[in-house]
Amino acid sequence: MIAIACDHAAVRLKNEITAYLAKLGFACRDFGCDGKASVDYPDYAAAVCQAVQSGECEKGILICGTGIGMSMAANKFKGIRCAHCADSLSASLTRLHNDANVLAIGARVIGDELAFEIVRTFLQTPFSGDERHVRRINKISAIEEAQK
Ligand code: RB5
């Protein structure tokens, strides 16, 4: 199950991505938002990140105007490694190297076709599991723990 959410700047693209993912065979849990009324992106980042933290959803997709606010909020959640991507090479490498579990994209920055390619690449690329990448991810977790 893939968790997906957006703010008011990205409702159309969120709906397009959800339909695209359904065609690829991915089931999505849509956490909103669904209208044009202004909302606060951290609330939607929280819903998706909590679904990933609990294991209800395997990965998350967050979309706002730039993707930046969503990624900043998401990376405050323990165990969440959110990658803000505007190209498919980054989407591939963040899975292979960082084992990113949440993707953030900017609806005001990239077109639909590129967004589809980024999302597909992110969801279909496995983590490499290489020792050096595991070691580095563990160091990210250690930073998180030390902040408490
Ligand atoms: C909303 O206007 C906008 O600030 C938001 O979608 C996002 O781009 C924040 O990072």
Structure write-up:
Helices cover 51% and strands 15% of the residues. By secondary structure, the protein is α/β, with parallel strands linked by helices. Strands 2-1-3-5-4 form a five-stranded parallel β-sheet, sandwiched between helices. α4 (88-98) links the parallel β4 (82-84) and β5. It is globular. Bound molecules: D-ribose (RB5). D-ribose (RB5) is lined by residues 7, 9, 41, 64-66, 68-69.
List keywords for this structure.
single chain; 148 residues; alpha/beta; five-stranded parallel β-sheet; 5 strands; 51% helix; binds D-ribose
Structural class: alpha/beta
Largest sheet: 5 strands, parallel
Determine the fraction of residues in helical runs and give it as a percent range.
40-55%
Low-confidence stretches: none
Mean pLDDT: 98
Strand residue percentage: 5-15%
Radius of gyration: 14 Å
Distinct small molecules: D-ribose
Alpha-carbon distance between the termini? 30 Å
Report the order of strands and helices.
Answer: EHEHEHEHEHH
Q: How many beta strands in the DSSP annotation?
A: 5
